[in-house]
Amino acid sequence: MGNSKSGALSKEILEELQLNTKFTEEELSAWYQSFLKECPSGRITRQEFESIYSKFFPDSDPKAYAQHVFRSFDANSDGTLDFKEYVIALHMTTAGKPTQKLEWAFSLYDVDGNGTISKNEVLEIVMAIFKMIKPEDVKNLPDDENTPEKRAEKIWAFFGKKDDDKLTEEEFIEGTLANKEILRLIQFEPQKVKERIKEKKQ
Ligand SMILES: [Ca+2]
Ligand SMILES: [Ca+2]
C-alpha cells in the first residue's frame, strides 16, 4: 500500500476506511480533497449539518431529526463529524448491508446511548420524523399511525413489548428483519438529502 499521493489523509485512517467500507483508496483520497474544499476545517459542525437538512425540508422542521442523525454519526461524541465519521456514516446508511443499516438505526433510536431502546425513545424519534412529514401527507396516513403516539404504539406492539420493557440491539435487528411493517414504520428515508449531501461533497 504505501502512498505517495494520500495528501492530508493519514495512512491509518485510509486503511481503516478501506477495511470498513468498500471504497477504494483512489475514491477515498479524491473524496477527501473535495471534503476539504467544502469544509476547510476538516469537520462538519452540528449547525452545518442541520442547515443542510433545512435546505431540503423548507416546509417542515427537520432540526430534531437532523440532531439525532448527527448524534448517531458522531462516533466519538465530540460535537463534530470528521471525514472518517462522515464516510462511515454514509457507507452505513447508503451502501451498507441491511444489518449494518439496522445497527445504525438502533443507534439512532437509542437516544441516551445506554445499549437498549425504551418506548419513550421510540416516541422521541418518531416525533422528530413527524416534524419532517408535510401536513398534507400526514392526512394520508392510516388511522393507527397518523400521530407520533399511535405510530410509536404500533411499533412497540409489533415488537411484542410491554410499556416498561426495553429492546436490545439483537431484538431490534431481528424483529425488523422479520417484519417489513416495522421497517417501514421506523424509518424516514431522506434519500434525497443523502444523495445531495454526497453529491455536494464529491
Ligand atoms: Ca466526532
Ligand atoms: Ca436507550
Distance between the termini: 23 Å
**How many domains, as an integer?**
2
CATH superfamily of the largest domain: EF-hand
Summed over residues and divided by their number, the pLDDT gives a mean of: 87
Strand order, main sheet: write it out. 1-2
Rg from C-alpha positions? 18 Å
Strand count, sense and barrel status of the largest sheet are:
2 strands, antiparallel
Which CATH class of the largest domain applies here? Answer: Mainly Alpha
- SSE pattern, N- to C-terminal: HHEHHEHHEHHHEHHH
Strand segment tally: 4
Family: Belongs to the recoverin family.
Protein name: Recoverin
GO molecular function: calcium ion binding
Pfam family, one: EF-hand_5
Features:
single chain, 202 residues, mainly alpha, Recoverin, domain 1, two-stranded antiparallel sheet, 12 helices, 4 strands, 6% strand, globular, disordered N terminus, binds calcium ion
